[in-house]
Amino acid sequence: MAYLGVESSLSGRRWVGPDVETERQAELLAQQTGLARPLCAILARLGVPPEEAQAYLEPKLRDLLPDPRSLKDMEKAATRFLKAVSGRERIAVFADYDVDGGSSAALLIDWLRQMGRPATLYVPDRIDEGYGPNPTAMAGLAREHDLIVCVDCGTLSHDAIAAAEGADVVVLDHHLGGETLPDCVAVVNPNRQDEDGGLAHLCAAAVVFLMLVEAGRQLREAGARGPDLMKMLDLVALATVADVAPLRGVNRALVQQGLKVMGRRERVGLVALSDVARLERAPEAYHLGFVMGPRVNAGGRIGQADLGARLLASDNPAEAQAMAERLEALNAERREIEAAVRAAALDQAEARGLDAPLIWAAGEGWHPGVVGIVASRLKEHTGRPSVVIGLDGAEGKGSGRSVAGVDLGASVQRLAAEGLLIKGGGHRMAAGLTVARDRLEEAMARLSDLLEKQGAGAGGAADLRVDGVLMPGAAQVDLVEDLERAGPFGQGAPGPRFVVPDVRLSFAKVVGSGHLKITCGDGLGARLEAICFNAMDGPLGQVLLNHEGRRFHLAGKLDVNTWQGRHTVQMRLDDAAPAAD
After folding, report:
1. Which of 307, 311, 383, 384 has a beta carbon 3.0–4.6 Å from 269's, enabling a disulfide?
2. Contact 481, 531 (CB under 8 A)
């Protein structure tokens, strides 16, 4: 039965509330733990039993961090890395151009700097070189370096790594592996085919962090000491959230501890980034994914590929400030490019039909730096895996985003193995591909078939899951802070979403690039402000803007808004539905 009777909201979604068993577990948690009922509702939905509630609310990294040596090749990777450090060898770091790659590179560069060792950073240009190591770049690095560490890439780069003659190569990655591995010193990757999958949810920066943990252990066994790794968890947290890794197990502890480190404002690059983004409070997981992450990514998308990694690795405040300002400008430019591609892609997808297992669009000259973001927007709009491709000449380069329970990376990799793609790979939630123009339709049809077999496209628009009802007067700062104890929230651990029922709008205004700001009240004096991002892209924004005093149920997530030292609660609106007369 639909929650509050909402079978089709303004976004066309059915609202689904807690089932009877979840409600029962929430009551049991409240009785046995003494925790607030709204917090217990979240813990019950996350499957936390009463006896584990306290441990869940206070995750300890020492209890959850896996033994680095549980990953194949880890000991060899750390040993070779330390040999390069102690032997004063020339070290290069080859990184992907996204947040995970930049954070991974910054981890290594920071660690090496503290050990008194320099490193060369190499980030390939997205347009000219594409993703991952290429033979020309690797051969060039090998001529000038003794060790090349590939981070967030390299697992499928057999030819490129073979071109690194005269240098040793270590790969620290998390993308899906193939049947064979490149010939190098070590490939540490929880998604190798010969791994058991127990750590498949780690991002590349977490793999790099584990390698540094192993390096620290080897140093201690030799009577030496390495840098304080706990101070580096801010980078791991940023990468974990921005790369949409599921926030469960050790990932949750890494992010929670990393946010505490970030709140101390000790890393000059992240401080500069927070300041240009006007972030006036200690960051939460939301800010990593939607405020800081896009800015770090902006250089790799439409500007200088290594700018994000250099910012994260910087120890010079003036230099960091200049790079952060440049990334802010590039991010604004990226938003303009994205808006144009998004509109065209949505029109094309709607013409093709939004009820297929795969939503896809391809356009001439679409910037390859924004196709991934647009694919994410299509996925959010339709609740289905989405792929967006920019065509240039005889080829198209694209990016895809998936939904829970559908492994997009494996399907794309299978297409590449079948010869329908020039190349392709990724992980469960995201993938990249290059396809010949004359095989585009055939490849997308095959990909749609593969995804349908995994359950993609079943049913209508995605249900909107809510945790309960909350009156405007109850939306207080202390409640939001209490709910945040169950965080951090993100992929695999959705944040609390409540319905503010039967309220009238007293204010509605379009702000920024198609966002909608509203104020609602319950008629008893209590008011609540809300912001709905990208609301004007669909009917939700249009109806609320022209509300004419009608009553609505509003569904969204509560946040604390800080302005000039004043803290107020604001709802990030996800959906709305007319309230029954």
Report:
1. 311
2. no
Residue 482 in tokens: 């209490």
Per the CB < 8 A criterion, the answer to whether 490 and 509 are in contact is no
Pair of tokens at residue 230: 């706990």
Residue with tokens 């998604």: 191
How many other C-beta atoms are found inside a 10 Å radius of the C-beta of residue 218?
A: 15
> Is there a contact between 429 and 410 (Cβ–Cβ < 8 Å)?
no
- Cα separation, 287 vs 296, in Å, equals 12
Instruction: Report the distance separating Cα 426 and Cα 203, nearest Å.
Output: 12
| Mean pLDDT, the chain, integer | 94
What is the per-residue DSSP string for 112-165? HHHTT---EEE---TTTT-SS--HHHHHHHHHH-SEEEEES--TT-HHHHHT-T
Q: Between helices 371-382 and 317-352, what is the axis angle to 10°?
A: 50
Q: List Cα–Cα distances, 238 to 86, 94, 107, 278, in angstroms.
A: 30, 19, 12, 17
The 3-state DSSP composition of the chain as helix, strand, coil percent (nearest 5) reads 45, 20, 35
Please spell the DSSP secondary structure of 350-415, one letter per residue. HHH-SSSSSEEEEEET--TTTHHHHHHHHHHHHSS-EEEEEEETTEEEEEEE--TT--HHHHHHHH
383: left (phi over 0), alpha (psi -120 to 50) or beta: left
Residue 35 Ramachandran class (φ > 0 left, ψ -120 to 50 alpha, else beta):
beta
Q: Are the C-beta atoms of 390 and 396 separated by less than 8 Å? A: yes
Record the tokens describing residue 15, joined without a space: 């609202």
Phi, psi of 192 (to 5 degrees): -65, 150
Give the start-end residues of each E strand in 429-523: 430-436, 464-465, 468-469, 498-511, 515-521
What pLDDT band is residue 459 in, cutting at 50, 70 and 90?
low
Residue whose C-alpha is closest to residue 44's, from 26, 17, 30: 26
Can you say how many angstroms the Cα of residue 99 is from the centroid of all Cα atoms in its chain? Answer: 9
560: Cβ contacts below 8 Å, ≥ 6 apart = 281, 477, 480, 481, 567, 568, 569, 570
Name the DSSP class of 185: S
Put simply, whether the predicted model's pTM sits higher than 0.85 gets the answer yes
Residues 367-400 pLDDT 10s: 988 999 999 999 988 889 999 999 999 999 999 9
What CA–CA distance (Å, rounded) separates 206 from 203? 5
